[in-house]
Amino acid sequence: MTTPNWKRRVAAFTAAAGLLLLAACGGGDEASQDVTTGAVTAQQALADNVAPHANRDDAEDAAQYDAASAISITLADGASTTSDDAAVAIDGDTVTIGAAGTYVLTGSLDDGQVVVASEGDGEVKLVLDGVGITSEADSPLVVTQADETTVVLAEGSQNTLADGADSAADDEEEDAANATLWSSDDLTIAGDGALTVTSQAADGITAKDGLVVLGGEISVEAGDDGIRGKDYLALDGGRISITAGGDGLKSDDDTDAGTGYVLLDGAAVTADVGDDGVSATTDVLVASGSLDVTATAPSTEEDPSPKGLNAGAVVAISGGDVVVDESEEAVQGTVVSITDGTVDLTATDDGINASSGSGESMAAEDGVDLVISGGTVTVDAEGDGLDSNGTTTITGGTVVVDGPTRDGNGALDAAGGTTVDGGSLLAVGSGGMAEAPTESSKQGWLQASLGTAAAGATVTVLDAEGNEVATHTLAKTAANLLVASDDIETGTSYTVQVDGEEVASVTAGESTGGGMQGGRGGGGPEGGPGGDMAPPERQR
Hints:
Layout: H1 5-25, H2 42-46, H3 59-63, E1 71-75, E2 81-82, E3 88-91, E4 94-97, E5 101-109, E6 113-117, E7 123-135, E8 141-145, E9 148-153, E10 158-163, E11 179-183, E12 187-191, E13 194-199, E14 203-207, E15 210-213, E16 217-222, E17 227-229, E18 232-235, E19 239-244, E20 249-251, E21 261-273, E22 278-280, E23 284-295, E24 307-311, E25 314-326, E26 329-333, E27 335-347, E28 352-354, E29 369-381, E30 386-388, E31 391-402, E32 412-414, E33 418-420, E34 424-429, E35 445-453, E36 458-462, E37 468-473, E38 478-484, E39 493-498, E40 501-507
Parallel strand pairs: 1-5, 4-6, 5-7, 6-8, 7-9, 7-10, 8-11, 9-12, 10-13, 11-14, 12-15, 13-16, 14-17, 15-18, 16-19, 17-20, 18-21, 19-21, 20-22, 21-23, 22-24, 23-25, 24-26, 25-27, 26-28, 27-29, 28-30, 29-31, 30-32, 31-33, 31-34
Antiparallel strand pairs: 1-2, 3-4, 34-38, 35-38, 36-37, 36-39, 39-40
């Protein structure tokens, strides 16, 4: 059977990441040569993907235009006009742009459509300067053919695009324009104006090639997916608000191992969705900016399994702020790497789940890894807090986990073990599956039974001199505590208090024995690219 491209992408990535780790170590014994994972930034992961088209790195240039030489189009019901009849055809309330160039659009259509059908080379730049287009039967703004299209939101302008309940925008055919703003080729959105997109049953904004957002105040309300770039979706600027019945941000090409990724590198995004906040066949990459996801809205999926960030290959967070307020699983990928940034996750199941989704063996999976080397990571999960079907490695950063209250899950769950070589880790949760770090961990750690400590209680760890080593206020009931940090010395005794009352005296480096030092992590839930099924079904 042929291996899907997105799975080959995982193998290639983990091998490359292993080389990065080996180079950083500068050598090592023979066993270390088998390492196939390591901390990776969003930029390093992006290097393995195809490069976005030219406008991606220059928001200012993309938004610039010469108003004096631009072709004007004034939209009006039954009376639209243009300054260039050769480049623009008007047929009733359908306006068709047939050549490369810059076009400034104003006015409105109550039931009409603007179509870009440019067969020649060159960019089509559409400047929306106070445009309102509604189409009851079709997508109001469609690019059927163009070398490249840029939509510029004129400074200070308010623009709206909306389709009707009977719109063909929800057509499932291969080449159907199934979004309110739809492009068959590369699409860039730039400028400092505002755009409101409303789709009754289909996607809000879709490009069948790459989609880049460089600026603008963009609000999308979609019956299905919010913003989708089939080959890639890069969000380099702008303020974006999405309410969607499907996924919020999506890239779903599965024909090339270098496509199907979502990159957040400067935009501020909020997404209230019924399925995944971010869904990518290959990678979800966060370099800078902010992302706030609530993945619990009514879903258009038959069997929704809402996740905050969901990648078939790699989730790499190397900066910015990522918040998942509600989800079933907050972060899922075959490889999850956090090197910097602030990450705050809430989930009814696993907080972070590194899984290939094969579910075929209880043994640790090669190439499945959760790596935290920096940043601040906070997890509140009712399933496993940090879950890996391979290994979990913490070498830096600050990690706090409020894990499950039930014994069937644990704050930590790694089939190949959790190794803590640096940074700080504080994990609380149930006692039945409580996992301790591996024996090879370089960081000092301690583990203690708390009995039944109530939500809101303060847990404090003191050394022999009474100095505070760690403290945490419980988000919910907890029976077990694990702390690893530079302040803990293996073989030394520590006292654990709950609300000032001693509940345990422990020796650092000794497990409470409630669970194990490494165990089978949970499999990815069905329906996502990291789950037990294939990546998300391709849309056309």
